[in-house]
Amino acid sequence: MDHHLTRISKRISFTLRHHPDKIGINLDQYGRVDLNSFIRHFNQHYGTPISEPLIRKIMRQSDKQRYAIEGGTIRALYGHSIPVKPLTPPKTPPEVLYHGTTHAAARLIVDEGLKKMDRDFVHLSANRRMAVQVGKRRDPKPVIFQVEAQKAAKDGILFYPTESGVWLVDAMPATYLKII
Ligand code: HQG
Fold it and tell me: Superkingdom of the source (predicted)?
């Protein structure tokens, strides 16, 4: 995806995950906002105008699905810091999931488990390749944790799927984690 579209995509994510107030919109409890209203406010705030076809082009060209357009609304699929409820109910996860992180964080995670830090949920990856990509944002040689997801689910931890290969959980105790 070219630099221009990447910049717009980051602004859309920033708005829908963290700061809808910055462009003067409110999200509903699931993080949704009317698509036309979103586009209107976004364009009033930022110089570069966007449109529904442009958003759909970004969605087609992205390495990851970051937002969804449904029934005339748009929402971020994951990554929120403002409180939102998952739109999809919890589901039994695959046998294992993954989490990529820095060496510094990993030293704490082996004792404390995964915490949501500044976001609403802990983010887990469906496969190792995705976890490596996530971890590489902050560490050139990230540490990869394998998560015993089904065991955790049997013990009562709720796993929320997204359409992005990202699974959301409230927290993940260290007992279900191992470095691979
Ligand atoms: C770490 C991006 C210390 C955790 C990505 C991570 C993802 C702890 C950092 C999505 C900890 C939080 C989310 C503990 C967890 N002590 N550090 N107990 N527990 N951490 O950005 O999972 O490209 O909030 O390991 O690709 O890195 O923007 O979470 O390093 O899918 O669409 O605290 O955001 O997606 O960092 O990334 P983040 P994340 P986009």
Answer: Bacteria
Fold annotation for 3-76: Arc Repressor Mutant, subunit A (1.10.10)
ipTM score for this prediction: 0.98
Residue type at position 76: A
What would you measure as the largest C-alpha separation in the chain, in angstroms? 50
CATH code at 96-179: 3.20.170.30
Q: Output the residue whose Cα is nearest ligand 1's atom 10.
A: 79
DSSP 104-130: HHHHHHHHH-B--TTSSSEEEESSHHH
Q: What is the CA radius of gyration of the chain?
A: 17
Torsion, Cα of 125, 33, 60, 96 (10° steps) = 10
Name the residue at shortest CA distance from atom 2 of ligand 1: 134
Determine if ligand 1 sits within 6 Å of the CB of residue 70. no
pLDDT at 1: 84
Distance, CA 122 to ligand 1 centroid (Å)?
7
- CA of 77 from ligand 1 middle (Å) equals 15
Query: For the chain, which residues score pLDDT lower than 70?
Result: none
Q: Please, where in the chain does CATH 3.20.170.30 lie?
A: 96-179
**Ligand 1 centroid from CA 123, angstroms:** 7
